[in-house]
Amino acid sequence: MQIYQSLTPVRAPQGSAVALGYFDGVHCGHRAVLGAAVDCAKANGLTAAAFTFELPAGSTLKGGRILSLRQKHARVAAMGIEEYQEAPFDEFRALSPEDFVQTVLVECFNAKELFCGDNFTFGARAAGNVERLRELCKPLGIGVHIVPMAQYQGQTVSSTRIRAALEEGRLADANAMLGTPYAIDWPVVHGKGIGSGKLGTPTLNQNYPAAALQPCAGVYLTRIFLNGTWWPAATGIGKRPTVDQSADAAVTCETFVPDFTGNVYGQQPVLEFYKYFCPVRKFNSLIELAALIHHAADESKAYFVGANATK
């Protein structure tokens, strides 16, 4: 997938089928829009493309980031998108709906077919909606296709609902709406050595950056991709009250991989979350804490053995 990080013409000599949206989380609804564009491109000899944008650092317009850009790109590419434009929001936010169609869709994408949800807006101050998009594109011979909104438990799937589910520890709901396990790929950094030095449970530390959505504190059954292999693991997110009771204790994300040994500092392994196991709590001793970590790791190994057996 070719990624463009500014408004620039993409490679679409025969024209493109363009998916439109922010695609935060690349959830079920986003996948339907992206998939429709890919299917149309294949059937009509067009280039499968997507237009999205990147918000300024610190922006709260869309809430905390569900996926890193690296993960977002990987998931979109896996859908079959060939040309992907992710312009800074400020680069086009002042365009009128008419200028957006001409500058972005015609000049940058040579668009022939467009795909979006029925809540898509565009142009300065979100002045354009899907009906306006149809009006502006019809004289240009550009087809506009509204993809039905994905549903989960009787309500529309949205990034807002996914964020709420993650923050409340409802991992099963979040994963169902994402259509694939929630995952992070933050860099592995050095911790304080408590896991390896005092607990006998060396951990990989992938702490959340400020702009990222942070899930509910707790212990999770996870798996991590290291050295070309998926490894069952147990991950704790929280302030570690057993070993650090200070008022300003940092929130950490630590993963114990029971069967793995090796140095992965600086790498960005994908860590997938499958089940919320238990909340974070203070233990009376490090022995009790270590026992919980080992128990969670054993449960993770059993979980993935069972998952593989049902495939």
Automatic annotation (TrEMBL):
Keyword Transferase: yes
EC number: 2.7.1.26, 2.7.7.2
Gene: ribF
Record-level Gene Ontology MF annotations: ATP binding; FMN adenylyltransferase activity; riboflavin kinase activity
Domain of life the protein comes from: Bacteria
SMART domains: Flavokinase
Known catalytic reactions: FMN + ATP + H(+) = FAD + diphosphate; riboflavin + ATP = FMN + ADP + H(+)
Family: Belongs to the ribF family.
Name of this protein: Riboflavin biosynthesis protein
Signal peptide (UniProt feature, chain positions): none
Organism ancestry: Bacteria, Bacillati, Bacillota, Clostridia, Eubacteriales
Alphabetically ordered keywords of this record: ATP-binding, FAD, Flavoprotein, FMN, Kinase, Multifunctional enzyme, Nucleotide-binding, Nucleotidyltransferase, Transferase
Pathway: Cofactor biosynthesis; FAD biosynthesis; FAD from FMN: step 1/1; Cofactor biosynthesis; FMN biosynthesis; FMN from riboflavin (ATP route): step 1/1
InterPro entries: FAD_synthase (IPR015864), Riboflavin_kinase (IPR023468), Riboflavin_kinase_bac (IPR002606), Riboflavin_kinase_bac/euk (IPR015865), Riboflavin_kinase_dom_sf (IPR023465), Rossmann-like_a/b/a_fold (IPR014729)
Riboflavin kinase domain residues: 177-305
GO biological process, one term: riboflavin biosynthetic process
Pfam families: FAD_syn, Flavokinase
Gene3D superfamilies registered for this protein in UniProt: HUPs, Riboflavin kinase-like
